[in-house]
């Protein structure tokens, strides 16, 4: 439908070579040689092995991989919710726990995870209350602004049970943005949605991201979603969880839904799918 | 409209049918002093002895209420202690199960020996009867808080107190109220049980006396009052739960919360 713009060429690099575009921006998130081992009864599980990556300031990076490849673990490490077994993580120059304490991270979960007794607005302002930021009136103002941003202003006083799945996820995104985080971490935020709703949510997410100029790190198992949203896509394989490829998405922004019919979009999606399968085929490596 | 009204009609119909069966049996079996007074005879007895029933019910309610309150305070303290300091939880739980498996009917005489046949014995027995459901449900509720909601709070830099107050406690409260609907009738039962061992007034003692006097209508009337008390206790906490936590899943299914 749309003719590919001049910048719309597929400028993907070979696996594991840092993209030139990424290195130009100062890093917002840096992982160096990060491994994570979980102690389970009777055995140790190597969830992540030697993962290194960089996310530039203002960049949108997606991580894709099969279930059980440690994508969520990666995100939880970046959020400082768990500690790495080896390696270092730096977020805007400081360790994750500190970034978390300074409220520089916004987190969107697989499930919307709204508190059922709070209205949409009260869910959005929850973390502002926790951070004791602003007066009640200011928090309310800010909450309403964010709800407007995700198109839910008229549902401010509705409890989650009255909202559809897509609306609940939009509230979740508004809530993650409430503290004006430098980095937005998203763990398959639209995983449970139908395809049409998912695409609409992707568009809205891009709008929000472009307006707020935040750095975004998204985990997904949907190749199309990763290509549509991202500047760069990282591919993971399971057993143990590891990075196997990196693809730069040179598609022009702002992106529109007709991009889904673009041949460059198809080429990139096909390439990522192949890489996912090659990761599957290489299969489980013996733990070291 | 019809679907909404039909459960009410149905339960009304069941009660009416039971009353009818009772009346039929009473009429066909009736000889003076038999086991089956008619519903009307029981109603007359209730009315004639209304003063005695009111004062006896008052005594039992007082014992049960004090016991219930003591049980709730104790159970909440123990559940929270177990939650905040996990190593304590297992031994507290074992202690609670030990207390639960004490046969109250056997414990009551021993308590009378220690504390006399005054209010204290009844309150303790009522508390023991109410304690366990509150403790178990609250412990369960505190552990089954949505883990994602807690991670959300942590990721947002919340302290564990903030997470407790804003997430764990609100999640646990509806479950606590559900436990109250079981514990409150249990406390009334406990109080009446304790009265059997020795008391000057109370529904339990009235029940026992009417049995020993072969006053069958009064026995049935006492039974009716005791059931009514338990029903009211249950109803109070059920309605309070619906009113306070209309968002809770248990309230949405019943439909009476008014959401669907």
The count of helical stretches of chain A stands at 9
The topology string of helices and strands of chain A comes to: HEEEHEHEHHHEHEHEEH
- Residue runs with pLDDT of under 50 for 5 or more positions of chain B: 253-260
CATH class of chain B: Mainly Alpha
Give the CATH superfamily of the largest domain in chain A. Answer: P-loop containing nucleotide triphosphate hydrolases
How many structural domains in the coordinates of chain A?
2
Question: Major beta sheet of chain B, specifics?
Answer: none
Form type of chain A = globular
Output the structural class of chain B.
Answer: mainly alpha
CATH architecture of chain B: Orthogonal Bundle
Global shape of chain B: globular
Q: Would you tell me the overall average pLDDT of chain A?
A: 85
Largest interface by Cβ-Cβ < 8 Å: A-B, 26 and 21 residues
Helix-strand topology string of chain B? HHHHHHHHHHH
- Estimated share of beta-strand residues of chain A: 15-25%
State the end-to-end CA separation of chain A. 50 Å
- Provide the gyration radius of chain A in Å: 19 Å
Describe this structure as you would to a colleague.
- The complex is a heterodimer of chains A (288) and B (260).
- Chain A is an alpha/beta fold and 288 residues long.
- Chain A has nine helices and nine strands.
- Chain A has helices spanning 20-24, 71-78, 96-101, 120-130, 136-149, 165-177, 195-212, 223-229, 263-282; strands spanning 27-40, 43-56, 60-64, 86-91, 105-108, 183-187, 215-220, 232-237, 242-248.
- In chain A, strand 6 (183-187), helix 7 (195-212) and strand 7 (215-220) form a beta-alpha-beta unit.
- The longest helix of chain A has 20 residues, at 263-282.
- Chain A is globular, with a radius of gyration of 19 Å.
- The termini of chain A are far apart.
- Residues 1-23 of chain A have low confidence and may be disordered.
- Chain B has 260 residues and is mainly alpha-helical.
- Helices cover 83% and strands 0% of the residues of chain B.
- Chain B has helices spanning 2-29, 39-48, 50-84, 86-100, 104-115, 119-143, 147-155, 160-196, 203-212, 216-244, 249-254.
- In chain B, helix 4 packs across helix 6 (119-143) and helix 9 (203-212) runs antiparallel to helix 10.
- Residues 253-260 of chain B have low confidence and may be disordered.
- The interface between A and B is medium-sized, with 26 and 21 residues.
């Amino acid at each position: 439908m749309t003719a590919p713009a001049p910048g719309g060429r597929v400028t993907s690099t070979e696996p594991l070579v840092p993209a030139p575009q990424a290195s130009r921006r100062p890093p917002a998130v840096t992982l160096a040689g990060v491994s994570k081992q979980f102690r389970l009864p009777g055995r140790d599980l190597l969830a992540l092995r030697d993962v290194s990556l960089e996310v530039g300031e203002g960049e949108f990076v997606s991580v894709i991989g099969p279930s059980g490849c440690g994508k969520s673990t990666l995100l939880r490490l970046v959020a400082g919710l768990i500690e790495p077994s080896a390696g270092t993580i730096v977020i805007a120059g400081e360790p994750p726990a500190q970034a978390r304490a300074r409220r520089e991270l916004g987190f969107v979960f697989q499930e919307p995870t709204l508190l059922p007794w709070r209205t949409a607005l009260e869910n959005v302002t929850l973390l502002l209350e926790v951070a004791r930021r602003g007066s009640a009136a200011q928090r309310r103002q800010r909450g309403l602004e964010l709800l407007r941003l995700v198109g839910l202003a008229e549902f401010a006083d509705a409890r989650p049970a009255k909202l559809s799945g897509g609306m609940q996820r939009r509230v979740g995104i508004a809530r993650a943005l409430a503290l004006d985080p430098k980095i937005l971490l998203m763990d398959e935020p639209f995983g449970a949605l139908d395809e049409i709703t998912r695409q609409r949510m992707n568009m809205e997410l891009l709008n929000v991201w472009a307006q707020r100029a935040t750095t975004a790190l998204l985990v997904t198992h949907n190749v199309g979603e990763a290509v549509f949203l991202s500047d760069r896509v990282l591919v993971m394989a399971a057993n143990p969880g590891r990075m196997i490829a990196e693809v730069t998405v040179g598609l022009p922004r702002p992106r529109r839904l007709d991009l889904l019919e673009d041949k460059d979009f198809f080429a990139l999606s096909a390439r990522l799918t192949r890489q996912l399968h090659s990761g599957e085929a290489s299969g489980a490596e013996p733990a070291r | 409209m019809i679907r909404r009204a039909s459960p009410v009609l149905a339960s009304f119909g069941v009660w009416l049918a039971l009353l009818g069966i009772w009346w039929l049996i009473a009429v066909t079996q009736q000889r003076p002093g038999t086991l089956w007074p008619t519903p009307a005879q029981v109603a007359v007895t209730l009315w004639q002895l209304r003063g005695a029933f009111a004062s006896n019910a008052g005594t039992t309610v007082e014992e049960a209420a004090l016991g219930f309150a003591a049980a709730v305070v104790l159970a909440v303290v123990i559940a929270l202690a177990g939650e905040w300091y996990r190593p304590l939880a297992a031994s507290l739980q074992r202690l609670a199960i030990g207390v639960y498996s004490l046969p109250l009917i056997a414990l009551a005489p021993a308590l009378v020996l220690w504390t006399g046949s005054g209010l204290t014995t009844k309150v303790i027995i009522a508390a023991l009867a109410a304690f366990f459901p509150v403790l178990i449900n609250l412990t369960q509720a505190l552990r089954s808080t949505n883990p994602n909601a807690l991670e959300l709070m942590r990721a947002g830099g919340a302290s564990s107190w903030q997470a407790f107050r804003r997430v764990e406690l609100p999640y646990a409260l509806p479950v606590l109220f559900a436990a109250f609907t079981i514990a409150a009738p249990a406390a009334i039962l406990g109080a009446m049980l304790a009265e059997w061992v020795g008391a000057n007034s109370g529904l339990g003692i009235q029940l026992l006396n009417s049995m020993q006097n072969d006053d069958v209508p009064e026995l049935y009337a006492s039974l009716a009052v005791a059931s009514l008390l338990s029903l009211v206790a249950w109803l109070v906490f059920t309605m309070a739960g619906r009113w306070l936590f209309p968002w809770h899943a248990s309230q949405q299914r019943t439909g009476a919360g008014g959401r669907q």
